[in-house]
Amino acid sequence: MAKYNYATIASEHGRQSIMGIRLKRVYEAVADDDGYRALVDGMWPRGVAKADAALDEWCKQIAPTKDLVKWFDHRRERWPDFRVAYHGQLEQADNAILDRLRAKADDPGLTLVFAAKDTECNNAVVLRELLAGTNGDDQS
Q1: 44 within a domain of the structure (yes/no)
Q2: pLDDT band per the 50, 70, 90 thresholds, residue 136
Q3: DSSP per residue over the chain, as a string?
Q4: Distance between CA 47 and CA 45 in Å, rounded?
């Protein structure tokens, strides 16, 4: 099984950035440098008004299935298997959506918005890996 270097994919306040793709919790304040903001969860986050989220797109079509989310339950010991399963789902996803998000990463930059409390192990991390062409493995 692959080793994961969470330090390489995490930074303070969940504002990780790889190749112009930033991750940010929906509960964080919107910033001028967020660029294109895309919510990547299948369900709307609790307690957030659509206007306050300031989203450019809600990509619920590429969110992990409800069954996968329920199984994962944000349990760290399940993270490696979740990554593999969700990556497989993304490989079957609508390429037009993925291509549009890749293009937004180049200009004006892309922020994948998510609701999970865990900023290191969530679906946005996996999606960013796919969009950026990385796999999250420890390269050391």
Answers
A1: yes
A2: low
A3: ---B-HHHH--GGG--EETTEEEEETTSPP-GGG-EEEE--SSPPTT--HHHHT-SEE-GGGSPPHHHHHHHTT-GGGHHHHHHHHHHHHHTS-HHHHHHHHHHHHTT-EEEEE--S-SSSSHHHHHHHHHHT---B---
A4: 6
Number of structural domains in the chain = 1
> 68-107 pLDDT, tens per residue?
999 999 999 999 999 999 999 999 999 999 999 999 998 7
Determine, yes or no, domain membership for 139.
no
